[in-house]
User: Which sequence fits this backbone?
């Protein structure tokens, strides 16, 4: 029996990670119909898979068209959905045990930032708050509750209230995390709040169609100047994952021990790249115990010498050459 508490541990060794990857792989091939069909489609010999690098990664597009879940959907299953335009199909992540998700994001936060009770947390997530099924809102709600600070909270359209709380907290001994989507933080910059040294600004990415997408470096430069803070932190997560990676300065993301990044070749999606070469991002997330832990994303990046992930952009369909099978409808 797989034990989430043992797997989602900040003391997880590399050897244990690789051991659990193989166990989870065999479990999900058996219990997850979509993943099993994908493994069969690409003619993977399950018995021959002996290393993490040999494990097949499921195209993330299948979360839009299939129920990627182990076993049958249950009454307490929560469905997280991605934000999308009216012309796009949202991804759906069927989460059978939200306690596994809670354990993952709490352990991840503690690893990189410590006890959430040490912070006041201000969440500027207007696009996400106005719809149901946001995994980011779920996470931030739990962190806000854990902070137990009277000024912690969400902000939708009330910029004046956010500015009031910033003024109350500015340059006090209280540590503050201001977490927000990119476009909302850029809107906040217009108010020139000049944050004190006790503030951490964390962007979660995404213009959500409100304006053109920016490179990380350009976005962080604008936020740093507009909010008067030297370093911009980033959170890297997505609807299809139950773990997050963090960057404390710039574009270099680190993952908790149960999450790992691999880079695949653009021309051959089944071939992994070496470090310092760009390609598609594959992610192992062992918190996805009851869905699929092995995801081939549509993000482009590379791993630096320290093994940190640098985001470079996203595929569009014209970029994915020679791999129609990756996004086919055969499953």
Assistant:
């Amino acid at each position: 029996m797989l034990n989430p508490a043992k797997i989602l541990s900040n003391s997880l060794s590399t050897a244990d990670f690789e051991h659990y990857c193989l166990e989870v792989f065999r479990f999900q091939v058996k219990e997850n119909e979509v993943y099993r069909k994908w493994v069969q489609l690409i003619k993977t010999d399950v018995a021959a898979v002996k290393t993490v690098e040999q494990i097949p990664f499921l195209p993330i597009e299948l979360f839009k068209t299939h129920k990627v879940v182990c076993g049958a959907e249950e009454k307490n299953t929560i469905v997280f959905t991605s934000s999308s335009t009216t012309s796009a199909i949202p991804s759906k992540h069927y989460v059978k045990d939200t306690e596994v998700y809670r354990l993952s994001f709490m352990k991840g936060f503690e690893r990189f930032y410590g006890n959430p009770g040490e912070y006041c947390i201000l969440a500027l997530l207007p696009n996400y708050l106005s719809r149901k099924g946001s995994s980011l809102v779920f996470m931030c709600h739990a962190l806000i509750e854990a902070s137990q600070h009277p000024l912690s909270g969400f902000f939708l359209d009330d910029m004046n209230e956010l500015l009031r709380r910033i003024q109350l907290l500015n340059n006090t001994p209280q540590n503050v995390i201001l977490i927000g989507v990119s476009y909302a933080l850029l809107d906040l910059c217009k108010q020139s709040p000049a944050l004190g040294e006790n503030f951490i600004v964390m962007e979660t990415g995404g213009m959500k169609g409100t304006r053109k997408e920016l490179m990380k470096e350009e976005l962080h430069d604008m936020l740093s100047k507009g909010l008067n803070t030297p370093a911009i932190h980033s959170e890297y997560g997505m609807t299809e994952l139950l773990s997050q990676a963090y960057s404390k300065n710039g574009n270099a993301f680190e993952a908790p021990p149960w999450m790992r990044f691999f880079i695949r070749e653009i021309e051959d999606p089944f071939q992994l790249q070496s470090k310092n070469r760009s390609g598609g991002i594959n992610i192992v997330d062992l918190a996805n115990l009851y869905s699929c832990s092995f995801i081939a994303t549509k993000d482009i990046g590379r791993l630096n010498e320290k093994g940190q992930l640098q985001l470079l952009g996203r595929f569009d369909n014209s970029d994915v050459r020679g791999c129609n099978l990756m996004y086919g409808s055969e499953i």
User: Anything to note?
Assistant: The first strand starts at residue 58 and ends at 59.
